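Dear colleagues,

As part of the handover before I leave the project, I'm documenting each prediction I ran so the next person doesn't have to rerun anything. This entry is a single chain, and its sequence is reproduced below.
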Amino acid sequence: MARPVSEWTVLTSTSLAVVAVFLDTSILFVAFPSISASFSDVSTTTMSWVLNAYTIVFAALLIPAGRLADRIGRRKTFLTAVVIFTVASVLCGLAPTAGLLILGRILQAVGAAALVPSSLALVLQTFPRPKIPMAVAIWGSIGAVAGAAGPTIGALVVENFGWRWAFFINVPVGIVSFVMGRRVLPEGREAHPGRLPDPLGVVLLASGLALLAYGIVKTADWGWTSVEFIGCTVIAVGLLAVFIHRCRVVPNPLLELSLFRVRNFRWANAAAFVFAIGFNAMFLGNILFFTMVWQFSILEAGLAIGLGPLIVALTAPWFGKLAGHIGQRALLIPGGLVFATGGAMLLARMGTTPSYVTEFLPALLFTAVGVALCLPQLSSAAVQGLPPDRYGAGSATTQAVRNLGATIGVAIVIAFVAGATGGQLEDFRRVWWLLVVCGVMISLLSTQLTPGAPASAHPDPVPAAA
């Protein structure tokens, strides 16, 4: 008789792959300047798709991939996803051209979109119900720590071995996760699987978002008031409008719009979208500022921002516990303002002469605390008030919304700084203004949340590393 598999062994096996996904996400921000330099004949706007192609595909496929795992088997989906992600990492590391690198990133996103929900589903089905909150918290914390370690690890790897190793380091993790997973992971699927989400909805969402991002990054060439930009935006908005219409009328929508009738879900996702724009703009913008304006090396830039994710990883769990007593709204409103203050300090202090301790570090402390105040609260507020059987759909939708915001944030930064030659301070000042605006909007949107409600016992555990 086969010996029962320990639930902790299942958690370990699935978490290894999650580490690779979230480590890879934050490493790519650090590696981006080095990658762009390797393809010096390719424009910055084109190279932005190394980041945006991933977030777009991930956002579009996350929900259908999770449903597919429930239907055909979570173990089968997880192991297949690990293989796809690992093989794609090898292809990215070997890519001789920017086009092949972007294709590799798309394949990585396909693997990640299937890996993340199937990993969590395996944990949820294995642990006894009383232990599920603890298991989910550990699973999410592992991803958060990986994301926090990404800048420092990425900087060390890129500086000493080159940017291709930012992808190659996923290979041993993927191999161990696959071999271990084949031995220990139990299979599980829905007893009565429903229809898969609308495939045309996936195409419409990905196409609309890609066209919108393309229009934004091309403003460096076209201008914000050009016919090309306006036309591109109109078509993108039209595709997204058709996508929303299909979600209303088809029986198997990609996004369940009925979830947005719940007050907290609606407003928390709006704030999460804005937060993702600001967070990703801050991350990429600061890396590019250090390398373009202050002329830092990749290692120096990675170490310079590394303190921020570390502060978030250390303080976010404590703020999450506090929200359980006083509610998310009480932390989100000041949290957005703290984040905006960090952006304002960058505007007021940063100059062209490097002065990390006096100019950047104080702003970093504010933005890091602002992220710690907002990130876990937005996740838990989004699912608060949903029926228990809608937690999975709600969490997946929130993840998709955050990736949409990430795409827009990256596109805006590229649009602002693509024309900078040798680094111009004014280009980055626009990025910092964006942080201020996003922080204030997070606070304003959070005022619409239910006041005084304690945090949900089932928060979305996936950290927003990308």
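Residues 456-466 have pLDDT under 50 and may be disordered. The CA atoms of residues 1 and 184 lie 15 Å apart.

All the best with the project,
I.
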